Structure formats: structure tokens, C-alpha cells
Amino acid sequence: MSKTIKGLIIEEYQARISGVEEAALISIRGVSSNDTNRIRSKLRAKQIKVSVVRNALARKAIEGTALSNLGPMLEGSSALAYGGQSVVEVAREIVALLETFPSIELKGAVLDGTLYKGKAGVTELSKFPTREEAQAQAVTLILGPGRKLVGDILGPGRTIAGIVKAIEEKLEKGETIAKIA
Which of 56, 58, 145, 161 has the greatest CB tally within 10 Å of its CB? Predict the structure, then answer.
């Protein structure tokens, strides 16, 4: 392959991954073409893209980017999976696909510059909360003490309101209220 063609391929890779700061690296070697199409369509439904790459050219394309940690993992058959809402969602989807397509090899993933190596790393990453889930957990933690405080304040108020209502009902019936000494 000529230097010009290699340069064009590198530019294409850079265009595809421009703005991508987190991705998973997988191998789909040994997966039939029909199964590869099924995998790609399932991932495409979740807005996840899969790009099969040439290792040496991909290493040059990701040099100096947030994905540069994946460089040493680029050996053998390689495909970048990226997109969706986050790499956590990508990892979840790929780990779920392993049940149906056990031939998929998980090489690694990058999240916030941290490299998660191999199947164990990607599986660990798939258990992380997504950005939306983490925000929901933070909001719950923030609102928790406020709810408890409001409950603590309203509790005695409800008790007093119940006593006042009981007194009111007794007075409406014409009963007298005895003093407690």
C-alpha cells in the first residue's frame, strides 16, 4: 500500500473518531459475516458505531488523542466501538452480546483517559453507572437529608394537628374536655 493511500486511511480514521474521547476495542475475528451484520445492527440501534481498523494506521490516527491508551492493544483483528451515550453503554451492550456471540473478544476500553484491559476490564466498566444514572444518584443523595428534615419537622406538626382535630370533634359533639394534671 502506498504512503498516499495510508495517509488517506489515517485521515479517514481521524475523521470518524474526531470528538470521540471514549471507546471500546474488540475483535470480531471468528464471527460469521451474517452474525457480524446482526451485531452491527443491534449496536446501530443503540447509536453505537463499529469500525474495523488496520492496527498500525489506527495507532497513528489515535496518537495524541484521548484514545491513545488503546494503542498497545491494537494487535490482531481490531474494531473500535464508540458512540451511544457513553462507553459504559457500549461496554454493557458488547458484554450482553457475548452471550449470543461468544467469539467476540474484548480487548479493552478507555473512559476518561483510564484504560480498562481485556475482558475483565470491559466487564468491570459495564457495571459502572452511566452519566444519567450517576446524576440521578447524586440528586438522590442531595435530596435525602432534606426529605428527612422535612419529615422530622412535619411529624410533630401532624401530631398536634391530630390532637386539635380530636378536641374539635369532641367540642362539636358537646363533650367536655378534661384537664390532665
Answer: 58
